[in-house]
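Note to self: keep these together.
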Amino acid sequence: MSRVPSADPAGKGPNPALRASILPSSQTVEHRSVPLRLEKLATRASCPPLGLTFCLACLMVSFSSAGPLKMPRALAVSPDGTSVWVATEDGLWSLDVGRLAFTRHGTSEGLPSNRVNAVWIDPDRRVFVGTEAGACWQKGDSWCSESRGLPSPVVLSILRSRRDRTLFAGTDRGIARWDPRNLTFLAILDSHEFCRQPVIAIAEESSGGGVWFVRERAFERLGLDGRFSIYQRDTINPDRVCPLLGRYPKTVAVSPSGAVWMPTDGGISRLRASPGGAPSWDEIPILSGPINPSGLPSAEVRAVAFGTDGAAWLAFGDAGMARDGLGVVRLLRDGSFTAFGKRHGLSSGRVHALAVGPDGTVWGATPLGLSCFRGQAWQSVLWP
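Structure:
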């Protein structure tokens, strides 16, 4: 595996170059507004010159020369918390938390493609990856890949069930599961109208029960009986209508209590299981509706993770560039929340993926690097 030397050989900590990339949470950035005139960009006499105001700090974050930009697509923390894995358009990156050393995994190391869309780590610390050219998994120091049997080689999401260790792969044309007998994937086909839609996220219920899949226009649950249940905002079938707040799902997450969080373009709906009764629906009040009264970056949540203290962590993706770069929210059970941005130590307000380690450390992936929250402060490590 090719290693990017971001720590000294003696293992005494980050080298000076990396040390300069670590942003302490106490660091403050001076914001200066500079009016920029765009007369030279006007190509017609009828186009009046525009007077725009930019925040230099935001420009520095977006186009910093401290490190290259990478678009994170998924994030996972190892069960022992010693490594963090990030799927990007420039390969799969892992961070050694103790040495703060990045390692890049790409086609030279055995991945079928450098465009990595998904990463998942099972309790045995095996890493599973979805790429533009198939699924792969770690075997010792090498990678095994497979695309046979997939509805499409473009794997957008991946998960290995804790209950029966079934490996699911979500592609841009449907779902497949791994067949250990024939050593190939088998497409999971159903008659519903969404069966060929891209599967952008997968999550498993905490009780080891059903598995949830996120399509472009619907959520679906695969039960233990092998049947699918469809959850969509508007449908011509009244028995499948559910109170989702938007039409376009973004991701899915299952809380430690078993509640299923369903973020959409209009907010988050939540499905709670009721022992001996029908499941109940509610919504996250601070994110209800297209007009956000709470002052948060957006009603569209791109990632959800749950802390060991029961708090929910929400990330807003590209919408985090708005409102002074507030890109992450910590939501407590009583409904109170705290918003974090660049001035709190995040490498960028554009947080696209979240994960929580076994010690409660919250990790966020941005185009500029990784940020982690321990206790009351954020710290960031920029891409090498």
